[in-house]
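Notebook entry, structure prediction.
Reason for the run: the old model in the group folder had no record of what sequence produced it. Starting over properly, with the input documented here first.
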Amino acid sequence: MAVNKMEKITIIAESEKEEMILQAIQGMQAIEIKDFFHSNVDSSYIKKHFASTLLELDGSQKKRFQEMQTEIQEALTFIERYSEKTAKKKRVKRQTCTLSSLEKGFDAVKITGYLKEIATLKKKLALIETTRKDLLAKEKWLAHWQYLDIVPNKNSLESTELLLGSISSANQSEFLLEIEKISSVYIEEIYHSQNHVYYSLIYLKNMESDLDGVLNQYSFHPFEYPYDILPKEAYLENKEALTALVKEEKQVKINLSAYREHLEELYLAEEMTYALIHREEAKKHLLNTSYFFIMQGWIPVDEKQELSSVLKEVLPSDEVYMAFDQPTKDEIQSDIPVKLKNNGLVAPFEMLTEMYSLPKYDEIDPTPIMTPFYMVFFGMMVADIGYGLIMLLGALIALKTLVLPRGMKRFADFFLILSFPTIVWGFIYGSFFGGALPKILFGINLPFPILSTTEDVNTILILSVIFGFIQLLTGLMVNGIELTKRKRYLDSISESFAWQGLLIGILIVVLGMMLFDNDGLMTAGIIVAVISALSIVIVPIIQTKSKIKGVAKGLYNLYGVTGYIGDLVSYTRLMALGISGGSIAAAFNMLVAFMPPVARFTVGILLIIALHALNLFLSLLSAYVHGARLQYVEFFGKFYMGGGRAFNPLKTEEKYMNIEKKSKVKE
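New structure, fully documented this time:
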């Protein structure tokens, strides 16, 4: 398959129908809306004749939806974090539905009511938390003074004063000695902490000046006692208030737990607000007047019939105008988005192309060409029947039992497909969780391993290079065909076909020398290689006005043969990773096998599972990364440029559910 063909769509309808049409388009998730005033449309006619009726976008609706979304998210977080832990958790199960069914189930009034009630509980909890902090601070303070047996406010005399305060523990001894020197002062220690000592002092008022000097000298910190009851009584009252506060908090959390029953409604309401916000954002790209609106966008050709059917369901065909136009050359170069279209086997591998760069609209999609190579390379690097079966079962279980987000589903499909080459190469190497397959089974001689990772290392190495050689030739062939289609015939020779001839000629020479010992074959290879090399040098001479520069350029291009040698060496990683993964697995098996029988069948089982899980993860990661690297550096570099802009249709967020077209969902 290839890049999905696009057409430019124009829709004109009454202003009252705008929301209805946008909802239908959003449910399809197949139209990218263009900014009308930043496109190549000549809008001077509209500005001239409809200037008085043009409308500015009102952002109040979008702001309202954003505020509601924020409130919903805060409410969900609050419920999950603070509701009673014993309450039954009711999580939303991911599902597939249409946008229209989601919108029908959205009751803004009910959700607003929930949010107000939850906000009230949130305020109560916040007040409880503030009160608790105050009470705990008072408790700590009263704990220091609970042994004071008088109430200062009720024990004032005309001739004496009661003073409460604290000093640093380091100054205690000197402070007491100085106090003893002052007559008519009674001092009592109330509490002694690690760093401070708390005192009550009773003294004659006429001794205040003498006492002040000592207090200032030792940084005595006085304070006023605020209660009309004894500290011990105040301490107990504070404890009772804390106990009552705990009960109140528990009751609030129990009340909050009741909203767990409405979690699904809140999750779906959040999903709906995302959809409404995206729809409001799309409106700023439209041309709006008091009477009508104009929308332009890009639509895949195969979605045109679906769009017509969807719009017919929401309004009569004579109430909406639709026109489809082919993209212009300028739009193809600078504006048109790219959407890949491949069959079910190839589609999961599109994410590898997207990670590198999407093709331009008029460029070939490399995904179908890359897929078989990536499958072979991945299987060769993991190469274990057991690991392949785990991938197969894991992916199948996930796909059959869960509704996965689109990205995760693509990953599951990706590894499901890759499990098959992994199993095949596992049979070739004769590896099952690092153990060798039996030579004889039920009296039948089995051919495994077809290639031994210990005895056939050189053969595997040569096979890796052969696969790389084939992929390089394929990349050059694709490049030559694409250049020929663009009528760049000389470039197709110097950049593609001549290089293919040079590489094939060198291969023929090597085969003639090392495998067949045939002089005729060697001569043929040399002739092919020389003609190809001359083509690489001569074509730049023909294309360049300055023949000296042409010669220099041709010789420099020919020097690129060293890069091809480096590319072929890169493919040896297929051998290295395949052998290393199997060797590590075998080493883990050997490690557990050395354990005593009791340990082997207890701790050893857990250990072998953990070790093989680690090796599986590392093997998959290595194969994924190095397999992609071979495509990006060695393969794509031969024919692929990329630089396309991804297709970005008006759609929903799909945070909690998958939104599908009505034709794909049974409602």
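Summary: The CA atoms of residues 167 and 219 lie 6 Å apart.
The old model has been moved to the deprecated folder.
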